[in-house]
Amino acid sequence: MIELALLACIAVPLAVGLFLTLRAPQDEAVVARWALGAATLSAGASALAALAWLAGGAHAVQTPPRALFGHENYRFTFELVLDGLAVAFLALVQFATGMVMRFSRFYLHREPGFQRFFATVLLFQSAMCLLTLAANLDLMFAAWEMVGLSSFLLIAFYRERQSAVRNALKTYSVYRVADIGMLLAACLEGSGRHTLIGLCLLLAALGKSAQVPFSFWVPRAMEGPTPSSALFYGALSVHAGAYLLLRTYPLWDASLTVHLAIAAFGLATAIVASLFSRVQTTIKGQVGYASVTQVGMIFVEISLGLTRLALVHTACNAILRCYQLLISPSVVAHHLRQQATAGAARPDRRRSPYDLVLPRRWRPTVYAFAVSEGYFRELLKAAFWFPLRRLGEALRPRRSLVFAAGAAAILTTLGFARGAPPRAAVAVSAGLVALALAFSACGLALWRRPMLATWAICGSSLLSAGAMYALVSARHVYAAWFYAAGIGLAGAIGLVGFAVAVWRQREVARFSGLAAQRPTAASWAFVGALGVAGFPILPTFWGEDLLLHASLAGSGIVSLLLAGLLALNGYLAIRNYAFTFFGPGAPGAEAADAGRHASARAAGLAGAGRLVAMAGHPPEIPVGGQGPPLDRPEDALHAGWRSPPGTPTR
């Protein structure tokens, strides 16, 4: 009975979400009935399972493992667990999702994407239920990927806006970094290497929960509708990293290094995120960073072994931040009414706790650090993104040579790599990894020609499969062939979609918005991008697991590089799709967007000059400010309504 109830709470929202996705647009009342009915059935099944668990003595219940896929000694099993931790977090998931969906029924009235919003939220609900109940890391990784995809789709909900799509891609790039840690931890599960598993899980948790140095994506993820921001970055998604550490606590508890690392990152995040929240120019950014601050403290509690306190803290913070984000449009409307009737509100003169600690001469520096969000985004881009982009620009004129070298390398590997000595196999694998990186760089630089970019990205993934083919022993050759076949199928589907969409166009502009003109082609290209990214149930998802499980025994360093390459290629595939099918699609939009970014950079430099020239006091941030009239309260969330006169908005 418990197993059936748990399956129902996962399957019902997933099935209804797919139904709403594939069905023609319907009346809002019909869509709301389907969505709220599915959410109610899922919550009822969860409550039934919890009651049965309590009636059985509240002992942990684990369903029998059912193999969904396997080869040799690798098994991907579907097994669920219900214990006190799962019951508490599942109750939080169902309560928050139900309240947000009920709120959205009226908040999103007459929105063009009404049906798409509820379909995506149902996908997220199913993914969170699966993440909560999964009894092994492989299954948790599948749910982890589903949560990341639904987050990307909801941040880019207003897909005609360039800023929404840009920020969705920035958030998704951090999620892909987190996927590296999650995938490696899943492959290492059962190896007994507690410290390595714990550090991989920590990397996954840092990215998903916006901890230092990945905290910069939180305000940018608020581009989606307010209900999705409340559900994802107030209540559930931002706490998924903390839940991951709580669920996997027995795997890394024996390692003091992991405990210290979790405490260090959590404490650092609690300090810097509290600074960041005080200088945000939007109410959603303030609440988002406040939530991240509390999650940092939850990390510290977990590192100290206070798991029950961390669980209670998670539930309380999630409910509070969800409530604050849901009422944020009303708060904005209230302040706008105050300004219209009584003029601009007075600045908040309450003293900060930092006033008691920081010397006066340090305050401008700390203020500049907080305004720039610690320069974490700039540092990460300078360390990883800019070198890759420069490499792609350098190789773009010579892409024919790069493609020919890749084809020759694959043929050579197929003919001569098998049976090579271990050191030679590692050397061949390293060379293929370097060539795969060159292909990925070309895919990054060729975004104006999406079909060529797809060829380059898929070629990089095929070279990664070749590297693993050369590295692993003969009995694991099936893994490389399986993954290569999945990439070939995904690439073919994606190329069909791009070919139809960009027919007779040599190049496309950034954010061409072709989804509105070519919806069928957009669907094909999206399925292909998901295949390259390794979305669950698709062949590449199983192939990634097979390859990394097989290759870790050959060379840990090469396997780490390959995991990074697979994550990068998944991001580039989604980026290639978004650049072609999302955005306004108006002529000259890219030039206007570049002009706005240049103006913003100039304003930022001018603001930095003013900060340097300050004598001591950072400027006060008022509660309200003057601005143009807004049609909807939510428009003020991104209008810089809290900015003082002369302060550039971001």
Describe what you observe in this structure.
The chain has 650 residues and is mainly α. Helix content is 70%, strand content 2%. It contains 25 helices and 4 strands. It has helices at residues 2-22, 28-55, 84-107, 114-133, 137-155, 162-188, 194-208, 217-220, 226-235, 240-247, 249-252, 256-278, 283-303, 307-326, 328-342, 363-371, 376-395, 399-416, 422-445, 450-471, 477-501, 519-533, 539-551, 556-581, 589-613, and strands at residues 61-62, 66-71, 74-78, 81-82. The strands form 2 sheets. It has a two-stranded antiparallel sheet with strand order 1-4. Strand 2 (66-71) and strand 3 form a beta hairpin. Helix 19 packs antiparallel against helix 20 (450-471). The chain is globular. It starts with a helix and ends in a 37-residue tail after the last helix.
Question: What can be said about this structure in brief?
Answer:
The protein has 650 residues and is mainly α.
Q: What is the topology?
A:
Layout: H1 2-22, H2 28-55, E1 61-62, E2 66-71, E3 74-78, E4 81-82, H3 84-107, H4 114-133, H5 137-155, H6 162-188, H7 194-208, H8 217-220, H9 226-235, H10 240-247, H11 249-252, H12 256-278, H13 283-303, H14 307-326, H15 328-342, H16 363-371, H17 376-395, H18 399-416, H19 422-445, H20 450-471, H21 477-501, H22 519-533, H23 539-551, H24 556-581, H25 589-613
Antiparallel strand pairs: 1-4, 2-3
Helix pairs in contact: 1-2, 1-4, 2-3, 2-4, 3-4, 3-9, 3-14, 4-5, 5-6, 6-7, 6-24, 7-10, 7-12, 9-13, 9-14, 12-13, 12-16, 13-14, 17-19, 18-19, 18-20, 19-20, 19-24, 20-21, 20-24, 21-22, 21-23, 22-24
